[in-house]
User: What shape does this take?
Amino acid sequence: MSNPLHETARALVAPGRGILAADESAPTIKRRFDTIGLESNETNRRDWRQLLFTSEGIGDWISGVILFEETLAQDASDGRSLVEVLTSNGVIPGVKVDKGAKDLAGSPAEKVTEGLDGMRERLEVYREQGARFTKWRAVIDIAEDRPTDYCLDVNAHALARFAALSQEAGLVPIVEPEVLMDGEHHIAACADATERALRATYAALAVQNVDLEGTLLKPNMVLSGKSAADRAPAEVVATETLRVFANTVPSSVPGCVFLSGGQSDEEATVNLNAINQAAAGSSSASWELSFSYGRGLQATPLSVWGGKPENVAAAQAAFQERARLTSAARKGEYVG
Assistant: This one.
């Protein structure tokens, strides 16, 4: 018997396609718009996302889009809902449901993600608005004594509660335990923190009876710290990422959709390509290895657009090119 959650999860990691993360909160998109001297108001935010969603051929490379709550309810300039714009192009709409990371009581240098209160009711509304999947992000940083087991456990519990509630509402949860790349740490520190975070996450998902075939994982790649003196090359990133996943990610998970996490467009593409090339020769890599990029797909077209209507076509062409290159990397066929 067909299972809609399983079918949606598999569709989101269809060969050659991945997810556009367009779920920036109001403060985040304000910072992005500040770089092009554009006011962050509802109309400008709508115009920017409409530019992306109406790019010709978007469905060739993009399987789904993570929306901010505001966007889920917005209409395009032609009167259609933005959700309808996406679905007409074969793209699955989803929504970010967490309310952001706040200081963790008892360990204030660390964060815990909030947003579980009232979620069951909100999920019903999102489903009625056309969403078919959801996303929740936990934020984990690396320092001399961090992450603590306490931080990992409370965030894993919240991720699992979110996932169980999403599946109850008929929505595929994307669980995102992000280990930040900020810092000077060696890649081994990221590997250790990522492995611990994933172990805690999948233990909590098991306790809360989450159907893993109806989920996706949105992980960080295993990387050197952003400020590390000697950063590991793509081949080592690929090897370490796949080693950690083989130790932690159950084979029943349909796919991993990597976050770009502050990498440059080129770095995120090169690393995704290396991971897929390495996975092609690995018997332990049973999951689809795709992408869920925000800045990695939007940064170049945003700078081309600059908030000017006359630049829409050029910005869409820049977005199409970034999506095409990222799709190639998702297949291990990127040539820089």
